Amino acid sequence: MNNIKYYNDSLAYDFEMFAEKPAKRTEKRDNIVVMPKANKRRKAATKAVSAPALLVMTAVIFLAGLCGNIALRLQINEVNSEINEVKAAIAELDSEKTELEVEMQRRISYANLELEATRLGMKKPEKEDVVYIRVNNKNTAKTADGKMMVSE
Predict the structure, then answer these.
(1) Is the model more confident about 98 or about 129?
(2) Sign of the four-CA dihedral 133, 138, 139, 141
């Protein structure tokens, strides 16, 4: 690269920085709208609320907030008490359900079934109680309406 050309030339300096700056224009622009100044009557009408009135309004708002907070807490307490009552009823019903399940298991246990069956005169089948029926080679069955059914 040939940097000597730029070293000897004045391209590296911006002489406009050292020149006098032109005076700023003080002309009015067309796009700026000047608002008229408000008169004293308008200022009096829009004047802020007086201090005692502001204090009274603040106190009223504060008391309304406190009353609202108390009312909401009362409703929350009522709902919580209802929830606790329902939970207690659920716990009571769960214990009753468990009690009934235990009673049912006790009543239908195999030992109780066997005792009740023997009390009614039932007994376990023995070899001589079994009756075998011999049929021919084809399996046949007679239906309720008298037809003979043959399985293939």
Answers:
(1) 98
(2) negative
| pLDDT tens profile 136-147 | 656 777 777 878
> 0.85 exceeded by the pTM?
no
Distance CA 60, CA 67 (A): 10
The answer to whether 10 and 18 are in contact (CB under 8 A) is no
Give 148's strand partners.
142
* Cβ within 8 Å of residue 49, ≥6 positions away: 57
CA separation for the pair 56, 25 (Å, rounded): 54
Of 147, 130, 129, 150, nearest in space to 139 by CA: 150
